[in-house]
Amino acid sequence: MRQDLFTSPEGEWTAVSPQLATARGLIGSAFGIVLLLVSVGLWLAFGDAWGEWSWLAWIPAVIGVGLIAWIWWWAPRNRRSWGYAEAEDDFVVRGGIMFRRLVVVPYGRMQFVDVQSGPVARAFGFATVTLHTASTATAAEIPGVPLDEATRLRNRLTDLGEGHGAGV
């Protein structure tokens, strides 16, 4: 029987907020709409001057529509790939679709817990929680954590880090 490398041996996985996919979809759509507007502007400004090459003005629109379709396909899948588990001695974070990553951070190795929430994230009610250790390679970032859960995680992980006392 094949064992999955990206499962937690202890604890239950907690998923991130579904709002993460919606926010990412809307941000990607905004960039796609900008590309559509660029095409319309190019066509209105230079369409007649370019003659038979006026179709080139629509290349940004094609890219914009492709971006919008791709982001709404990708964002929900990416959101489902993120999760975290609280084990007895460490915190486990996983994420990624094509390039999957599993980070195990012992509570005693955490130096600090960082919570960030920009204007879009706050509007959708989530934050990004980052656990920092002495090594930058083992920093674990969890996007899309609901705000109340981010507060709970910050307090719990800080207490556990202090309680395990192995800090660097």
Automatic annotation (TrEMBL):
<keyword id="KW-1133">Transmembrane helix</keyword>
<protein>
    <submittedName>
        <fullName>PH domain-containing protein</fullName>
    </submittedName>
</protein>
<dbReference type="Pfam" id="PF03703">
    <property type="entry name" value="bPH_2"/>
</dbReference>
<feature type="domain" description="YdbS-like PH">
    <location>
        <begin position="80"/>
        <end position="157"/>
    </location>
</feature>
<keyword id="KW-0472">Membrane</keyword>
<keyword id="KW-0812">Transmembrane</keyword>
<feature type="transmembrane region" description="Helical">
    <location>
        <begin position="55"/>
        <end position="75"/>
    </location>
</feature>
<feature type="transmembrane region" description="Helical">
    <location>
        <begin position="21"/>
        <end position="43"/>
    </location>
</feature>
<dbReference type="InterPro" id="IPR005182">
    <property type="entry name" value="YdbS-like_PH"/>
</dbReference>
